[in-house]
Amino acid sequence: MAETDEELRMAMKCSSMAIGLQRFCRWAETRYRELAIQQGQPLDVAMHRVEHPVSSGDVLRAVCEQYSVDAVDLCGKRRTSDARLLAMKLLKEEAGLTQRGVATELGLSDGSGVSRALSQLHRRLAIDRALRRRLRECRERLGSNH
C-alpha cells in the first residue's frame, strides 16, 4: 500500500486494469486484450496505449545493448537499421510514444517516416525468425510480457 497520496496517485495512473508491480499490471493488461479479442469484443480506446510505459531511455539502452551500438547510431540517419526499426517499435509500444514522439526521440523530422518503417518491420517480423528473437530479447530486457 502506498504511504503517501502522491504514491497512490502514481500507482493509480500506471494501469486502469490493476494496481501492483509493473510486471503484474502488464500481465493484467495483456490478459484483458487477449480475452476481449477471444470474445469478439472491441477493445476500449484506453487500451490502445501502454498505461505504464518504460522510459524511452530504457528502451534505447535495451536496443543498444542487444545490438552492441551507441544511441547515436539509432538517431538522425537516413538509412534504417534493424536496431533502429526495433527501437521505433519499442518506443511506440513499450514507452507509449506516438509516431511523432518516436520521430522526435530518433531525430526524424516527422512521424510519417516512422509509420513507413513500422510497416516494413511488421512485414519482416512475419518472415524473419532472428529479428523476432531480437525483439523478444529486447522486451525481456525491459521486463515486458508482450
Averaged pLDDT, please?
81
Low-confidence stretches: 45-50
Distance between the termini: 27 Å
Backbone structural class: mainly alpha
Beta-strand content bin: under 5%
User: What's the number of helices?
Assistant: 7
Task: Report what the structure shows.
With 146 residues, the protein is mainly α. It folds into 2 domains: 5-48, no CATH class; 56-142, Orthogonal Bundle (Chromosomal Replication Initiator Protein Dnaa, Chain: A). Helix content is 60%, strand content 0%. The two termini are 27 Å apart. Mean pLDDT is 81; it is low at 45-50.
List the helices and strands and how they pair.
Blueprint: H1 5-14, H2 22-38, H3 56-67, H4 82-93, H5 99-105, H6 112-127, H7 129-142
Helix pairs in contact: 3-4, 3-7, 4-6, 5-6
Which terms summarize this structure?
Chromosomal Replication Initiator Protein Dnaa, Chain: A; 7 helices; 146 residues; globular
